[in-house]
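call fold(seq) -> tokens
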Amino acid sequence: MALFKVAFFSAVALALVAGELRFPLGKTGVDADVKQTIAPLQEVDESYRLPSDSVPTHYTIHLRTTVHEGDRPFQGSVEIHLNVVNPTDKIVVNNRELVITSAVLYRVQDEVLVEIDRPVPENDETRQLLTFQCAMQLGVGAYVLKVEYNGNLQRDSSSGFFRKYYRDENNRDRYLASTQFEPTRARMAFPCYDEPTLKATFTVSITHHKTYNAVSNMPVEALVETLEDPEFVTTTFEKSQIMSTYLLAFVVSDFETRTYGMQLIHARPNAIEETAFALEAGEKTLLELNLYTDISYYNYMPKLAQIAIPDWGSGAMENWGLVTYGEPALLFNPEVNTYRTKKGIATVIAHEYAHQWFGNLVTTDWWKYIWLNEGFATLYGYYGAHLAYPEEEYMDLFQLDVLQLALGPDSTEATRPMNWNAATPSEISGLFDRVAYEKSGSVLNMFRTVLGDANWRAGLKTYLLSRQLAAATDDDLYTALQSAISGKRMIPDTMTVKEVMESWTNAAGYPVLNVRRNYQSKELILSQDRFLADKKLPSDHVWYIPYNLADQRDPNFELNHFLWLTTKAAKVLVGTEPEHWLIFNRQQFGYYRVNYDSRNWEMLTETMVRTPEAIHHYNRAQLIDDAFNLAKADLLDFGVVLRLLTSLTNDHDYLPWAAGNNALNYLYNKLRGTEHYEGFVYYVHTLIGNIYTSLSVVTVDEQETLKQRYLKQLISTWACRIGYSECLDKTHEAFSAAVRDNTKVHPDVATVVYCYGMHRATDEEFVAMYKRMFNSQNSAERTLLIDALGCSQSMDQLDAFLTTSIGAGVGIEVNYFEAERTRVLQAVYSASRTGVDALIKFLDDWDIADDLIYYLEQPVFNSVIAAIAARTNTEQELNQLKQLFATVGEMAPENVVSAALETVQSNFDWHSSLEGVIVAEFLEKYAGWVEA
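ret:
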């Protein structure tokens, strides 16, 4: 064992003895005859669906839990009020992992329950169906099925009805029980009709220890002591609004509550002070969405509460009236949390609050249309946050975080359409992807822009009111939007909203709009093809593409006029002079890429370099992102990308830089360790130099805007990465001072300061940061510090840090949250090649590798191998990887090894590819061009 590792863990052990450390444990030219030919939806196994012979109307649910002691078993009973709509001799509901102890069936006669049967339950574990076979035929009418059962709180899963815990101020474990039912997991807490369209009302009561409390969708109706045990109380909640099973929620905990306006927030007692911003954001956002939809939330629900669940990642769930969040998505401490955390909280809250209309008030008829929930929530996550905090310009980030993020994975042959059927629970869970969220949000925003926000809002109001408290399909949305634009020319005259939108919702992928100019006649030939990043395949699908353009003579980037391409190709006359550039897709409102002929690209590049402000910052970001992805798909010379990136030298807006950052990271990963890396470093130096000199790396001016803070972090990260001595010196000085004085740097520069300050950290400083991380009870800060620790350049420090991920061989318990153990590995291999080398050395021990698989499981080990391979650029690095394979033997599955070696070979082959040769030649000549 290395000396530092001994010293490191000795220091931690001493801190434990002294009680200094507290360890928390541990998603134009219209052809009227063109009709879309859409492939039929894929076949699914409908045997997983519930029969339609009966439907629920109400559930009365009672649960009893002793989670205050950490116990997992719970007892439950449910009375399912149902209507038989077709005569049947069985009642079929969903069930997963619940043990049924009794069942009684009653017929409702004159509002009196008459027992008619004690049906025998038959459980189909594969299909998660529970059949109650009756002794007689049930006629059409009302019935009540009372079921008693036992279950266990999930321990290794954060879905269904699950257990979590945190550490209180006395370093004791405090347990809680919470729920996450979407999409198919209400059946893990009570037998039910667990399909979204089968809505009902709910009455919930929970028996729990008197030192705990319970919260649910509705306000508390009564809190009474239990007769059999005075240590327990029963909390009963008011009858709910009619809703889907997946929107039911309840939490049993010792949390505290704060209020703001008409809103509530719940959190563990030692974090309740970190809820102020979320309360404010919730109140502001709900007010804005009430005004925007012209439908008040409080017309349907009496309260809205938010609750922070420990060790639940950074996700959230829109349960009607009780929105659940992982702590990093809700808790904000201005002393330690960054501007990114605050932005994330604002947009996540707006996302979940948008669901109160899109998903809760109106629910998707089936998961095939999940974009009706998630697409709207994604759009209004940013637009709603923008309405609440217009000064933060959140919709600028929509372009980066949503639209451009969606275009990447949606450019593969394997992607699916927005409408896509599913039946099994795993298939349904798979629908919650970037198509459902980012793509759908982008497509909806495109049509919001084209139809005009006022028309769009009118259509949404019609949609929401016509389907309130019920389910909807895409046709319901199309019909409502059509009514809103009646008599208005927003779409091609011969088409309907349904036809236009279905060309996007029923087709996989998206188009590239090709613009070829005839510079003599001033004509354009527009054409469309499906954009695929890795291949070229014929496609006869026609997207109905709305477009607009700006040119050098009239650089109008307003979103006020749209034309349509509704055929594969069309000839269009424009007035742009031959010596002037033109740009399609103003402000990148449309969900597609645009490619131009070489002459137009050259004019755009020249303008971007000389006067970037002549082009809207959205379009500057679009041009860089489109060019980069078109070049990777062999549709554009990569030299265009490299020249276009030089425009960043004089660009002080974050959006183009963020788009450029993707290309620069791509090149960094290809070139690091190779003969052309030095040329790349000089290239980046010329891009960031002007901006870097205007920045203060380690301090923050409170007048800086959100985008300025994003830009500062991006530029200073590159400066330190490529070795600016001033950047490295300043970050180390600030880091050392923070450790020495036991203070914190400003959170908005903490990511860069802690990471690059760690490069020269002494062992004592490393231990101090490690202790600071474990002392922190703020999840977002803990993640930031874990990432910073992974930035160390000391092999001994990294080795000791990696050992904590498995708690191996140190004689003390290393208490991470479970997700943090994997984060340690990710932090080390993501930070630098030194980290990769340290990880290889760490795993180059059969026993250590075996322990890692034991503690973190095989998929984590496999992903680590893939990550190492992706960062292998030289023969020496490949030899290190091969040595690792020899050491771990069969612990690395054959397919994982094979895939890793293919990745490495792909890295090597890139240098002899056309793209690699173009990059190399450019970098070889670039210094001469700059000096000239």
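The longest helix spans residues 276-293.
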